[in-house]
Amino acid sequence: MGSLAGKTALVTGAGRGIGRAIALRLARDGARVGVHYGSSADGAAQTVAAITDTGGDAFAIQTALGTPGDAAALWAAFDEHADGVDILVNNAGILGGRMPYADVDEAIYDQIFAINTKAPFFVIRHGLSRLRDGGRIVNISTRFTHGARNPELAAYAMSKAALDSLTATLAKELGPRGITVNAVGPGATDTDMNAARLSTEEGRAAIAALSPLNRVAQAADIADIVAFLASDDARWVTGQWIDGSGGSML
C-alpha cells in the first residue's frame, strides 16, 4: 500500500510537463488525483489514462485559470468527483515569454500575475473548507526568486516571489490545523516550456552546466520533491522554499 493511500490530491496544470509528473508520482504513492487542465484536454486525458492504466485512480477537471471566478469554478468541478482534498499542488503557471523589461506591457504583466499569483491565492482560499486537517499545500515556484536573476523574466520572477511570500504566511496561518505549506523552486527542466532551449546540443550542455550535477532536470526530479513534501515524512517541514534547481545557484 502506497504512503498516500486513502488521500485525495489536486494538481493544477497536470496535463503536461512538471504537473503531469507530479500527478503520476502522487498516484503511484496511492493518492487519488484530480488532474486539472486549462486548455490541454488531450494532455489531461493522457495523464488520467497513464494513472488508471496502472491501477491508479484519477479524474480530470477543466478550468481556465486567470479568469474571473476561476477558483470557485475549479472547486465546483472538483466537488463533482470528491468530497474533500488532502494535497493541493499549485503547479499551473505561465512564463509570459522571455523579453526585455521595456517590452513588458500591462496586458502581459496582468496575465502573468492573474495565473501565477492571483489564481493560487484564491484556489487555496476557496479550498480551505475542503482541505482536511493534516493536509499539504505545495506551490511550484522558481529558482529566479532566490538569487538567480534574469531581466527577461522580471514579471515572472515577481509573480513567483509573491507566491513564496504567500507560502510562508499560510504556513503560520494553517499550522494550527496541522497543514503544511511549502514551495519548490525548479530551474530549467526538460519540458515543452524549455523545448527550444534544449533542442540543440549546445543549449542542452549550457543548461546542464548550471548544475554541479551536470545534467538537465527531468520533470520526475521535481515530482519526487513534491511527493516528499506531500508525505508524512515531511510533517515537520513547513513555510519553506526548497531549491529544485540541482544546486544551480551554488
Overall description:
The structure is a single chain. By secondary structure, this protein is of the alpha/beta class. The protein has one domain (8-244): NAD(P)-binding Rossmann-like Domain (Rossmann fold), CATH 3.40.50. It is built from 7 helices and 7 strands. It has helices at residues 17-28, 41-52, 70-79, 106-127, 154-174, 201-208, 219-230, and strands spanning 8-11, 32-37, 57-62, 85-90, 131-140, 180-186, 241-244. Strands 3-2-1-4-5-6-7 form a 7-stranded parallel β-sheet, sandwiched between helices. Helix 2 links the parallel strand 2 and strand 3 (57-62). The radius of gyration is 17 Å and the shape is globular. Belongs to the short-chain dehydrogenases/reductases (SDR) family. This is SDR family oxidoreductase. Keywords: Oxidoreductase. Pfam families: adh_short_C2. InterPro entries: NAD(P)-bd_dom_sf, SDR_fam.
Task: Specify Rg, calculated over alpha carbons.
Answer: 17 Å
Instruction: Indicate the structural class.
Output: alpha/beta
CATH class label: Alpha Beta
Largest sheet: 7 strands, parallel
The name of the CATH superfamily reads NAD(P)-binding Rossmann-like Domain
What is the CA–CA distance across the termini?
38 Å
Instruction: Indicate the overall shape.
Output: globular
Order of helices and strands: EHEHEHEHEHEHHE
- Low-pLDDT runs of 5+ residues are none
- CATH fold descriptor: Rossmann fold
Q: What percent of residues adopt helix (DSSP H or I)?
A: 25-40%
Strand content: 15-25%
Q: How many structural domains in the coordinates?
A: 1
What is the total tally of β strands?
7
Number of DSSP helical runs: 7
Q: What is the topology, as strand order, of the major beta sheet?
A: 3-2-1-4-5-6-7
Write down the overall mean pLDDT.
95
CATH architecture: 3-Layer(aba) Sandwich
